[in-house]
Specification:
Number of strands: 2
Helix content: 25-40%
Strand order of the largest sheet: 1-2
Structural class: alpha+beta
Largest sheet: 2 strands, parallel
Shape: elongated
Strand content: 15-25%
Order of helices and strands: EHE
């Protein structure tokens, strides 16, 4: 597998629908590895 400099999760988008503190805490490592984040605003 060749390393082209891309982060491992760069082709993924994470949809965060959580309202509790644990949601953003668990999503952060995915974003740190390159995933895009889509989340709903505060209602």
């Amino acid at each position: 597998m060749a390393h082209d400099g891309a982060l491992p999760l760069a082709r993924f988008t994470v949809l965060d629908l959580t309202r509790a503190r644990a949601g953003p805490t668990r999503v952060r490592p995915l974003v740190d590895r390159g995933a895009d984040l889509a989340h709903r605003g505060v209602i």
